[in-house]
Amino acid sequence: MSVELVDLQVLSAVLFCLGLYGVLARRSAVMVLMAIELMLNAVNLNLVAIGAFGAFRDVSIVTSQVIVIFVITVAAAEVGLALAIIMRLFRRHGSVNVDEIDLLKG
Amino acid sequence: MSLFVFYALGALTLLAAVGVVTTRSVVYAALFLLASLIGVAGLFVLLYAEFLALVQILIYGGAIIIVILFALMLTRNTDYQTATEHRRWPFAALVSGGLLALMVTAAIGDSERYNSNERVGIDITTLGAGLFEQWAVPFEIASVLLLVALIGAIVIARSSDGEDQPEGKS
User: Which one of A64, B62, B125, B134 is separated from A97 by 20 to 30 angstroms, measured CA to CA?
Assistant: First the structure.
């Protein structure tokens, strides 16, 4: 028995949904950020699996892996910016809970 | 053999991910996230993407987790010991469970169409040639994006005088 494409797709679907639950359910902004990282990793895993198994004729291995590199780059930029915003919020409010930050509420 | 490795790494990844979204302590959540990312790196090795596994461990394990831990240290808060769920967590569980059912159904239903059980990999030379020939312009744009994001992070995080007076919680 060898690993099939569907195994990896189911695994990355479960990982993505765990991340989605974390994004929607956690209150701390740092926790939300970590859950977003989980979702990005699920997408990366799916991309690499599709490329490695050659599931689609017009998605080559090089394409899938290069897109994964770009996703990792954007994730690094996103984490840097998000943590800067979180630090600024903490200095201003003394809290990083996303349901207490309602400055834009009328 | 590969199936056994897959189950071991998948169990590590998923259990650590469950830890990330359920644990009360933010520091434990960061360490669980590290374990989960290392599991994904192992799965990359299983898929013959060794360079991506290396990048995954270096950037996520070496940089992102460290930055998150630094941010936790700088924004120390008693809330962190007891990070709680939002009031609407049943709604979140419903949405993510429904999406999971949808995606698993789609993946299993489509599995007959892609009857490809052969994994193939590429060496780093091919990946590098693709990155710097076919994808050269997106690569440059990504580097500019990183630069802009880091400058923006510095500008946002730097406190200017008198601008950050704590206001009363409403």
Answer: B62
